[in-house]
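Pasting two entries for a bug report.
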Amino acid sequence: MRRLNPIYRTSLGLLTDLYQLTMAAGYWKTGRADWEAVFHLSFRENPFGGGFAIACGLAAAVDFLQAFSFDAEDRAYLAEQRGADGAALFDPRFLDHLAGRRFRCDLDAVEEGTVVFANEPLVRVRGPILECQLVETALLTMVNFETLIATKAARVVSAASGDPVIEFGLRRAQGIDGGLSASRAAFVGGCAGTSNTLAGRLFGIPVGGTHAHSWIMCFHDELEAMRAYAEALPNNCIFLVDTYDTLAGVHNAVRVGRLLRERGREMIGIRLDSGDLAALSAAARRILDEAGFPDAKIVASNRSRRIPDRGLEGRRGEDRCLGRWHSAGDCLRSASPGRGLQAGGHPAARRRGKTASSSRTTPPRRPRPASSRSAATRIAAEAIGDCLFDERPPVAGHAPGRRSPRWLAPCNSRRPAATTSWCRCFAAAVAATRRRRRRPRAAAATGDHPRDGSPPGFARRLPRLA
């Protein structure tokens, strides 16, 4: 997928915070630019007070990293920046160094759409600390926002109990890119479609929509408006019925539905947008069934930022579709992913002073994905994490001491060996746990780690996402 550069510009190297660039300049000046570091992106609390999150945003991050560079205009802008003394903030030699800098790090990430939990890594970047530092902010903003939206969408879809959920949050999203990113993330989170036609074109998401209250108000009365719409688009008739009186609107929709049927067409359904949606949907269902439209859908949309009322979703025979227009793109009061740091290839714990919050402490270890907090399965999860973040020997031709760019390796579409070894490792871990033996990480010495391929469900190579 290539969407960032056509929408914006060729170079997005400046999509970062200034302090990332000042630190990069410091690394270069002190000779630390190529020191190896490991950056992890994780979050401390599950969003919305829930028990999980849905990983998303990796595709945009991959696009960004593939084209990462600083063009002449970027360097000219940085050359204009001044320090407190009025002198140039950046050494011209450092800016020349940036001209030839490209992203050469390893990228490991949880596949989009994967259920993830607090304090486990979604993305890991390993390589020269200068490059890790420069891409940190961009990765945070891409993965943070889309993970948040995908999680919200998954919660709404779960509450809908199998009924399709349509996202139409563009009007309330955080700007143009916020709307596009939210539409894509909501689709990853389980939504059946979107109203955002640009997102539909860019990402191949099914689009849907009929008419709003302004259409009804444009005509002399509601019945005339519905008839006019049926004349104009007879194959797209979901009538909004609550502009004036909801149940009277349902009866008007039935009248127009009969006219459509006489012409060989069929009314798709109606939409409820206000009032007690559970009670109105039940009354509307009875009217539609009695009128001979048992297959007509009832689309429920509302402004609530909460998960929809269970009383509405529980009526499987009365509501066939849910429309959520702005909650998916307007996620407030929620946790945001943060990042952990390992510098120089060694775990670096963030020190906590007397006034520091314990929730902001970085543990002095390499975090791993985990799917459970129970003692029995945590050991197995750590072993699986070893597989997911398995270390490989350098590729021939790369400088000693440097990590090979694993994400540039050709994509191996056939992964039976990796899958088999991953399953063996998992089975061994579970068996060892049940026998209360030592931790199954020792399985690495027996060759059970998938050192020759990536485990299933783990997107670590760019060609697979391109």
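Entry 2 (this is the one that rendered wrong in the viewer):
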Amino acid sequence: ISFGRLVHWKVFALSIAAFAKFQNSAKFHCEYVIIGTGPEKKYLLKKISEYKLQDLVQIIEPIERQELWDKFKDFQVFLNSSLHDQGPFVLVEAMAAGLPIITLDLGGSSIIVDKKSGFKIKAKNPEQAVEEFKNAMLALQNRDVWLEKSIGAKQRIKEEFVSDRYYKSIEKVYHSLIR
């Protein structure tokens, strides 16, 4: 699952390309749902068609936060291919629901996600990122790996983001920016 405005810097096309490559090696039937709307929707639908993924990838309209939270229970992983997000709160929500995260190692995502809660992919070039996204998805097909990352995601949120430690870490970042 992914969530966000369908704009060029979110690079949903990268996640779709990685999902297409993943499907060639997947052990199980998997589907990918992108929740969002925006100017890139037609382009993304074209990519889905080019990869012949119309039966496996859906783009649905934005939903209310509570409905999103309920939907997280239907999925196994959250994909985030955004090139520019300061602090994507949706990652915190997905992790609280126990979803391992596969994200580009950029912006706020690189702070929120750690190796226990998911996979951070270096953004060297599109081909490399697609390959590493695919490899992370394949790794999560191992039940033990998925369970470790799922528990790690919930634990990270509990320990780092739903406590005074979170607010202190934000304060520390703000103070470092002011200096």
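Dev reply: Rendering is fixed now. As a check, the viewer should reflect this: The mean pLDDT is 91.
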